[in-house]
Each structure stands twice: as C-alpha cells, then as structure tokens.
Amino acid sequence: MLTDIVLDAMGSDKGPDPEIRGAIAACRQFPVRVHLVGPENMIRPLLEEHLRGERLPIHVVHASEWISMDDKAAASVRSKKDSSMRVGLKLVREGKARGFVTAGNTGAAMATAKMVLGTLDGVDRPALATILPTQTGSPCVMLDVGANVDSDPQNLVQFALMGQIYAQNVLGIPKPRVGLLSIGEEDSKGNALTRETLPLLRALEGEQIYHFIGNVEGRDLFNGRCDVVVCDGFVGNVAIKTTEGVAKLVSEILKQTLKATITSQVGALLSRKAFKNFKRRLDYSEYGGAPLLGVRGACIIGHGSSNEIAILNAIRVASQFAQADVARHIEASLSRIK
Amino acid sequence: MLTDIVLDAMGSDKGPDPEIRGAIAACRQFPVRVHLVGPENMIRPLLEEHLRGERLPIHVVHASEWISMDDKAAASVRSKKDSSMRVGLKLVREGKARGFVTAGNTGAAMATAKMVLGTLDGVDRPALATILPTQTGSPCVMLDVGANVDSDPQNLVQFALMGQIYAQNVLGIPKPRVGLLSIGEEDSKGNALTRETLPLLRALEGEQIYHFIGNVEGRDLFNGRCDVVVCDGFVGNVAIKTTEGVAKLVSEILKQTLKATITSQVGALLSRKAFKNFKRRLDYSEYGGAPLLGVRGACIIGHGSSNEIAILNAIRVASQFAQADVARHIEASLSRIK
Lengths: 338, 338
What we know:
The structure is a homodimer. By secondary structure, chain A is α/β, with parallel strands linked by helices. The first copy, chain A, has helices at about 15-30, 40-50, 75-80, 85-95, 105-115, 155-170, 190-205, 235-260, 260-270, 270-280, 310-325, 325-335, and strands at about 5-10, 30-40, 60, 100, 125-130, 140-145, 175-180, 210-215, 230, 290-295, 300. Chain A has an 11-stranded mixed beta sheet, sandwiched between helices. Chain A is globular. The two termini of chain A are about 35 Å apart. The interface between A and B is large, with 62 and 62 residues.
C-alpha cells in the first residue's frame, strides 16, 4: 500500500526543480505516491526529462497559480484561489491524499492549511514546530515558532501535548522530556504566561505528559536536555531567527578567518571533510522541515532553500506523520484534558 | 585626573585572581584608580605578589562577605549586608567612585545596584544591555536582557532611549539605528506589546530617536543592520541564552568533526591561528560586559568566566560610561518625553 502525499511543486525558491527531483528520489526509496501540484505545462516536461522513461507513482495535478515568497500571506490566500497550495491541500481534505508538503511561503501555507483542512477538535490554535539539532545528536521539537502571538496558558498546554505526540510518533521517542521555555529553572522564574502555565503542565505530569521537566532556558534547546520545548509563538519565532543569525555569523567569521592566512587555507583544505560533516549535522533539512500540528491532516512546511534531499526528507516525514495518525492521537489526547 | 572605579574582587568564578590581574593591567593602560573590594586578608597578599613592588593607584577596600553564583539573588542581597557588591556600590553612591564593575551573580548585582544606587529620574525600570558582535564588525546593543518581564510600551520606549545614549556615548555611534525586536518587518507584525510600542517609537523619530528603523527580527541582531535592539526582558533573555546555546553547539560539533579524521587533525592544527582569531571575534568580553542602564552610576556586569582581559575591558568601559556621564544624559533624555 502506497501512502499518498501531495507536494507543492512551486514552493521552493528554485521550484519546481528540487521538488521534481525530490519526488523522484522519494518514490524510489519509500512506499509513497506523490501528487505534484502546479502548472502542468511547467511540470510535466521537466518530470518526463528527469524520469527518462522510468515508471514511478508520481501524478501531476494542475494548478494555474502559485504563491511566492514575496506575496503577503493573508492577501494571497484570499486572492489566489487556484494556487498550488490550495489545490494540493484540497486533495488532503477530500481524502485523496494523507499528507501535504510545501517549501513555500510559511505564512501562506499555515493560513491555507487552517482554512482548507480546518483545525482538530480540542485545538484552539494549530502550532508550527521546528526540529532543532542538539549536542547529543537527538532532535529537539520546539513549538510554537509560527505566529501564535499572545498565547494563553491553555494554548501552551495544547502545544505541549501536540509536541509530545509528534516526538513519540514521528521521532520515535517513547517518553519525551517536555520543558517550558522560561528565563530560569526555578518555578518562580518567568513571565505571567509561563508562571500561569507551569502548574497546569505539572498537573498533567504522569497522566498526560509522561516526563515534564519544568522550566528550561534558551541554551537547553541545543544541549539535549529536552525533547520538546513549549513557548509562545512570538518568543519561539525570535529564538529561531536568532539561531539563524548566530549560525550565519559564525560561518561568515569562520570563512573570513580561514581565508586570512595561507597556512589556514591549507588547514581549511585538509579539514574540508570535517566541515562537510559539521554542516550536515547543523542542517535542519535532515529532519524534513517544520510540521504544522493541530490541523486535519499531515502538513510539513520546508525551508524556501530546500534542495532535493530536503524535499525527499519532507516527503518521508509527511508519510510517517500520516502513517502514525498523529492527528487522531492529538484529538484523543486533547479530549482527555477537557 | 584619574577616574575612580570600584571593582568587586570576588565576582568571577576564579576571583580574586582575574580581578587583581585585570586591575593591574587597567591601571597601567588607562587613567583609572581601582578600588578592589573584598576580604582584605585574601586580596592584599595576592595583590602585593602580582605588583612586585610596582606602585599603581589600586586601593583595597575591605568587605567580609561575597555573593556566590549559587546564592539566590534576592535572599543574598538581604542577608549579606557586608558583601563586596554592596560595600562597593556604596562607594559609588557616596561619590567616592564613579563606576562599578563586577563579574559576579547577575541577578544579585542588578538587585544590589538598584537598591544601593537607586534609579534615575524618569526611569521606571533599569535595563541590562548586552553588546553583541555582528557580521560587519560593529557592535549591537540589545536591551533588556535582564529580567524585566511583562514590560509595558513605556518601559520599551525608555529602553530605546537608554540604549541609544549608551551607543552614542560609549560605543561612539553618533546616530545609532534603533530597532524594535519583532517577528516580521511590517508594522502589522508582532504581539500586543510591540504593536503598541511601535507608534510610540515612531512618534519620537527625528526628535528623540535619531534613526528608528522599525521592527527588526532575531537575525538582525547579528547582521549589522542595527545598533540598538529593544525588547522585553523575557524575550531578550531567551534570545541571549539561545545565542549561547547555538555557539556552544557549533563549537562542540566543530571539535568533534575535526577530531574524527587524521587529515582534519592536521587541518585543525594548521588552522589554529584562524580559529583563535575566530574565537576572539565572537568573544563578548572584548566589549567589557553588560551595562546596567538607568541606575545612578556607571555599572558593568561581566560574565562569571571573565579573565584578566575581560576585567580590563570592563574597567575601561565603566570609566568611559562614567566620563561620558551616561546617567545624566539618560535623565535629560527621559525628562523630554514626559
């Protein structure tokens, strides 16, 4: 049995090329059927060219428009009624596919998914999660990093449960350690939101949350101390963009300093293999992009710079997400805390 | 004329050794008189040993106690009445010195400074600023990174003015570009706090804030786009600890990957000079620690891991802070927006 996954062919910065290559690679490796959505006249010739006569379960689904990175999310969702995102998500809503992958405009993808798929029972706000690499090698799920600003304690409790279910079912961590992002470990540390949320999460410990470790700090996102970190979407978005900024600064300085002397140019040459390994370990794309949790369906939003490998991984993760029935687990879990 | 600076001799993790060395180095390089505060029987012998008969303007001021990193801030400020921080800050309050430097417990230093020095007229909450390195090499002042949680728009406006004055008078940037930390550049992006603060800051543009660039994002902390970034203390603290976490992860992975192959061991050896340069450029201690803005006096809080160079730089910055009369400028600026 193949799992049907919809892929927005026009999402990434270099789309549809990485999408077509990623779809082909995914179909060769995993039991998936990929529905490539976008302008048929652009996609079909490229697909045929890459397939070179190979027969793979890839279907082209026509959509006349697409949403670009520069489009305003809210406006484009309303105006582009035949966008590849919208057409693709409709296939999931109609049960013709079980998961959706895009490397496109994050805001537009979230808004379209909420509108087309709808939210699960018991979910007040779907949350965007990101999967961070850590020192110990185990991934850390952080949510919300979308734009759920001014969340209330109930929102954070829902995020915690959704994050736990994702970590269990997709990342394979049986009892994920769940932390609340704050500014100190003691229970008294934090702002009004976290101080109100902490006792609610403690009350769920053991029953609904298997392993709640209390307040955690920014540095705990990367040291392997926890598997799921919960925060308001404003704070999460600042943290994730700060992470991008630091990573860019570090690699920029590294490049400059290595260029500065001949000795270190030689050094850099010899270390090339090590650097490649280094970059791979820091690369988010290995984890397949950001899952949108709380909508009716499996939805993965990749980075605009996604390449073939990133698309391949996103398809794999969407398939696991759908297979494990994460959405049903979320509904069941949230119904128990009502 | 020498500028009198008080140095908490017992602040850093390895105190009083780095403090004594740093004080000696500072007195050799800058026109400062350093008041070293701590248990006299611990400090004097070490100081004599390091001075080897050299005559420098360093005074030892006795304090029988000190606050350690493990002490709870609020409790230790109350109970340790003869702590080196408290005795040292009293010298500033009494006009016997113009600036205070500690590499000790940040929470305790902030609480003691607020209590002993008091806040400036017009300042509702003093703010802790941090100086970040950027890709362009110019520093970026971010505040608050202390613990002013649940700030209101007026607090953020005061932070903006204080940060601007620090950037002008201590970092020597005539018209600092001031940004408001948010989750998107458009004015509509942000949470309730930033959306309320943005128009207040825009209204001060030109008159009180020379160059307001609107909303900025986490990545703009490190790309040199702005000189001053304003945020609530919860968000700032998360951002700064996330930065520490990413930096640690990156250097850990780099170390591991370089160790993994012999070729790269050789490479690493050859690149050593470059790495040293790299580390120095990322090192915060060059900027001398975190200034506490809004109290009556110049107060610099360094990292617990401060070495001699970090202490030297902190003394230099405290002296500039005092010389430039940052506190008086802050009062004057805030009185104009009443």
